[in-house]
Specification:
This protein has 408 residues and is an alpha+beta fold. The protein contains 11 helices and 12 strands. The protein folds into 2 domains: 198 residues, no CATH class; 198 residues, no CATH class. The strands form 2 sheets. It has a 6-stranded mixed barrel. It has a two-stranded antiparallel sheet with strand order 2-10.
């Protein structure tokens, strides 16, 4: 331990220090501790929200999705499927037809997002944990087609899986029809399905109905065209690698996106909010640390005689500055360590016991999700160090100058 640190520690624990200086120092420590703890907790909550959204996306969205660069559909044949399957890391390929349609059940109707998928969808691993009633099946033992329906649609149409008489009726405008009266039944293609299961993920997916692709393609008059190809990647390969391989293999006619790219806007919004919150909390820590400035300024006034004596003993202005900078660092470091420890403890308690509830009955999780990341803890520590240097430098420099004048 160098001389400046030893003197700073002695000043910090000195019993003769005036009580109001000690009080201001304690207030500074408490302010830095609370600000640091708040930053750790809030950043961890944002990490948890990002992680939660990724889990939600994984429940419904494919690992990789192939879309047409222009238009809503593209031709799918065996050659294209073989080309996709030849890319390293591709495990399953699901053909998809997706568009809005009118759903009718009994005397009620609603606009839904109709998604047709082939038989590989049942092996994709999606919706496995989201089924709340029934089962994940598209065809019955005797070939009966089934629909997998979002819970929001079930509630809106009062669909019952026990009712084997009333079918779910899906209507889609007939292309090329010369019928001007859109209320006429002849203006729409019709598809009848039995409810096979209900799923719930989040409200953003509450308008989906999933059905066999061949029936949906016939309803929408797609023929052999498809809206997208959904890819499940092998466990040892990342979606980014497969996406890059597919982009190279398929060329410029297609757009290939991994799961994060499909939801880039939401993830970007979460990161931007996290950045702005971090900047805001940094200013709050700076305001709390202003007390360090005042306590060091008053300490410099109180210790003028000591500083003059140190100069007389051969001390340099640099040593005097380091004494007061070290004093400020002790105050800030004590508050930062307390705040970091408190923040980590609160995040652990929240993750372990879920003390703070989301307060929403429709949420997938009961409590606010938190996820500690060491880079956030390190970044918070760096911010506290920078703020400490800023608020401690001016009173340290003034103390060095004042002591130098007195020694002369």
């Amino acid at each position: 331990m160098n001389l400046s640190s030893r003197i700073a520690i002695r000043y910090f624990f000195s019993r003769n220090k005036r009580s109001f200086i000690s009080l201001i120092a304690r207030i500074a420590m408490a302010g830095v501790a609370v600000g640091t703890m708040a930053m750790v907790v809030v950043l961890s909550v944002f990490n948890g929200m990002e992680d939660l959204n990724r889990k939600i996306f994984k429940t419904f969205d494919a690992d990789v999705k192939v879309l047409p660069r222009e238009g809503k559909r593209f031709e799918v044949n065996s050659a294209l499927i073989s080309k996709v399957k030849a890319v390293h890391g591709v495990k399953l390929v699901t053909e998809v037809v997706e568009d809005n349609a009118l759903a009718r059940y009994g005397n009620q109707q609603i606009i839904v997002r109709l998604k047709g998928v082939d038989s590989t969808f049942e092996h994709q691993g999606q919706l496995d944990t989201a089924i709340i009633e029934g089962s994940l099946r598209l065809h019955g033992p005797n070939g009966t087609p089934y629909a997998i329906i979002a819970d929001g649609i079930r509630n809106a149409l009062s669909i019952s899986i026990e009712d084997i008489i009333t079918p779910l009726e899906l209507l889609y405008p007939r292309t090329g029809s010369k019928t001007l009266n859109i209320t006429s039944a002849e203006a729409f293609n019709q598809l009848l399905l039995r409810p096979g299961g209900f799923f719930y993920i989040e409200t953003r997916y509450d308008d989906y109905v999933i059905a066999p692709v061949e029936l949906v393609a016939s309803l929408m008059q797609y023929g052999t065209q498809r809206s997208a190809l959904e890819i499940r990647v092998a466990p040892d390969v990342t979606g980014e690698d497969v996406s890059a391989g597919l982009s190279s293999a398929l060329g410029a006619e297609f757009v290939v996106k991994d799961r994060d790219s499909l939801n880039a806007d939401l993830l970007r919004a979460i990161r931007m909010e996290k950045l702005f919150v971090a900047v805001t909390l940094s200013f709050i820590i700076l305001v709390a640390a202003i007390n360090i400035f005042f306590s060091l300024s008053m300490l410099a006034i109180e210790k003028k005689g000591d500083v003059a004596m140190l100069y007389a003993l051969g001390a340099t202005p640099g040593l005097i500055r380091m004494i007061f900078l070290s004093e400020g660092a002790i105050v800030a470091f004590s508050g930062a360590v307390t705040g970091l420890a408190g923040g980590v403890l609160l995040c652990w308690l929240q993750a372990r016991y879920g003390m703070v509830s989301m307060g929403m009955a429709t949420s997938l999780v009961d409590a606010y999700p938190v996820k500690l990341e060491w880079r956030d803890i390190l970044g918070t520590g760096i911010i506290v160090v920078i703020i400490t240097i800023i608020v401690s430098y001016i009173p340290a420099r003034r103390a060095a100058k004042a002591g130098q004048v007195l020694s002369v």
